[in-house]
Amino acid sequence: MSKKADLLSGINEEDQENQTLVFKVFGYGSLLWKVNFNYSSRDHGHIKGFQRKFWQNNKTHRGTEEKPGRVAILHEAEEDKTLSGGMFTIKGASDIEDAKQKLDTRETVLGGYISIQTKFYDECGVESDVTVFTATPDNDLYVGQICDHPHDDVEHIATQVVGVQGRAGTNAEYVIKLANNVRRPFPNEDDDHLFLLEKKVTEKLSNRSRTVQINYEQLNGINHHDI
């Protein structure tokens, strides 16, 4: 075999080896609609033993230092409790490195999250090992449950969410988008915390709009009276 053939053979073997490298990450929050890395496939399914909770402050994407927002994390639940989301499969050394760097910045550096390993089950029941990002009480942005009653806690979170925004947009948009991106592909998802928060946030936004409209009409009436 010639030196040129040896070189081409080596390149082909390297390409094949790169393609066999696989990294799988599970998304249950903003990754459901905002992916900033290349991936080979996306599968719907669920993980077990966790539930979504808006128990993490955010001071970058959906809030500020002065007015932090709230974002979703994983909280341990009963072993048979399922949480739906998407598994993103990234192949090849270059795309894997790029995805890991972007996820590390997005989730760990700016979000205060850590990565853990768990099992993902697709819609056919096929099992895969996945990386998932979440937060623990060990980081400064963790809030946890403030009120004893879950409904009171969600009410408190909704009050914080409304009127707060960060570099990625308003905190209310994050909550509503997440609810929509869970409800559409997973119509049977049992996520009382998320859907109750969406309801509370929507109500508060509606009340704000009515208040603004009333204030505008009152001000408009005063102006016309002055004229």
Write the layout of secondary structure elements.
Blueprint lengths: L2 H18 L1 E6 L13 E8 L1 E9 L10 E8 L5 E10 L1 H17 L4 E9 L4 E8 L15 H12 L3 E2 L2 E2 H13 L8 H35 L1
Parallel strand pairs: 1-7
Antiparallel strand pairs: 1-5, 2-5, 2-6, 3-4, 6-7, 8-9
Let me know the number of strands. Answer: 9
The fraction of residues assigned to DSSP E strands is: 25-35%
Describe the global form: globular
Cα-atom radius of gyration: 22 Å
Low-confidence stretches: 212-227
Distance N terminus to C terminus? 96 Å
Structural class: alpha+beta
What is the quaternary state of this protein? Answer: single chain
- Sheet with most strands: 5 strands, mixed, barrel
Query: What is the average per-residue confidence, as pLDDT, rounded to a whole number?
Result: 88
Helix content: 40-55%
Describe the strand arrangement of the main beta sheet, using strand numbers. 1-5-2-6-7
The arrangement of helices and strands along the chain is HEEEEEHEEHEEHH
Count, helices: 5
